[in-house]
Amino acid sequence: MTRRALLLINRHARQGQNSQAIAQLQKLNLELITENIEDVRFLSEIIESYQNQVDLVIIGGGDGTLNAAVDGLVNTQLPLGILPLGTANDLARTLGIPNSLSAACQIIARGHVQHIDLGCVNGKHFFNVASLGLSVQITQRLTKETKRRWGVFAYAITAIEAMWRARPFHAEIRLNGKTIQLKTIQIAIGNGRYYGGGMAIVHDAKINDQRLDVYSLEIQHWWQMLALLPALRHGRHTTLSGVRAFHAQEIEVYTRKPHPINTDGEITTYTPAHFRVIPRALAVLMP
């Protein structure tokens, strides 16, 4: 049976391959309604407008594009197919979807659906990780030009630049019935496994484990971060000096003044913040 899909491709995606994707998906017996996206802020609105006309939504772009679409996907409960056409593609990496456009199209055509959890902070859903502190500075410095020029290595280059200027801030975390006062340069709250161009929130994180993985980087000098980087890359940092780690289903974070919060690479809200996991929130086509 032919399925009808809404295909949304971010025209600014680094690896945007519109016509190639359309041709491959049509060969795989998918009927397509195609919208080229100039401004991802309208993605959720577009998805909701097609709610009763399609069987699934296919999104071509990176993590920022998917983050912009997540509220519309939640509201319509349409299954999601992913064409990883961005720079980092951390959600695709978490789900085991390869960067090959042909392979990603095959996964969508097979129609194997699994339900994944979502994170939510102050009413904003996210797939991968939400964070405040150093990561926000990285997001603010990570320009489209940098990503076009350096690809996934842009994250590491920008992170090193941001480390020089990182300053600790005071925060209060409430989770699992405890209140914790800390001084940190970054608090990260993960729903999925990968973020920041392939870094792991913790080594055993899954996007369907119904928990949030949290860590706080409590170091005083930028050079201490260099020693942590290899462990952070593989999610093995949680037992190291200068890192505090937790698991929870809900978390509250308070700061003396409002701090911006980065969700899947986009700044979307501010502290005070209430984080929670929403189990089995979304159907995704995956291996």
Automatic annotation (TrEMBL):
<dbReference type="Pfam" id="PF00781">
    <property type="entry name" value="DAGK_cat"/>
</dbReference>
<keyword id="KW-0547">Nucleotide-binding</keyword>
<keyword id="KW-0460">Magnesium</keyword>
<feature type="domain" description="DAGKc">
    <location>
        <begin position="1"/>
        <end position="125"/>
    </location>
</feature>
<keyword id="KW-0479">Metal-binding</keyword>
<keyword id="KW-0444">Lipid biosynthesis</keyword>
<dbReference type="InterPro" id="IPR050187">
    <property type="entry name" value="Lipid_Phosphate_FormReg"/>
</dbReference>
<keyword id="KW-0443">Lipid metabolism</keyword>
<keyword id="KW-0808">Transferase</keyword>
<dbReference type="InterPro" id="IPR001206">
    <property type="entry name" value="Diacylglycerol_kinase_cat_dom"/>
</dbReference>
<keyword id="KW-0067">ATP-binding</keyword>
<dbReference type="InterPro" id="IPR016064">
    <property type="entry name" value="NAD/diacylglycerol_kinase_sf"/>
</dbReference>
<keyword id="KW-1208">Phospholipid metabolism</keyword>
<dbReference type="GO" id="GO:0016301">
    <property type="term" value="F:kinase activity"/>
</dbReference>
<dbReference type="InterPro" id="IPR005218">
    <property type="entry name" value="Diacylglycerol/lipid_kinase"/>
</dbReference>
<dbReference type="Pfam" id="PF19279">
    <property type="entry name" value="YegS_C"/>
</dbReference>
<dbReference type="InterPro" id="IPR017438">
    <property type="entry name" value="ATP-NAD_kinase_N"/>
</dbReference>
<dbReference type="InterPro" id="IPR045540">
    <property type="entry name" value="YegS/DAGK_C"/>
</dbReference>
<keyword id="KW-0418">Kinase</keyword>
<keyword id="KW-0594">Phospholipid biosynthesis</keyword>
<protein>
    <submittedName>
        <fullName>Lipid kinase</fullName>
    </submittedName>
</protein>
<comment type="similarity">
    <text>Belongs to the diacylglycerol/lipid kinase family.</text>
</comment>
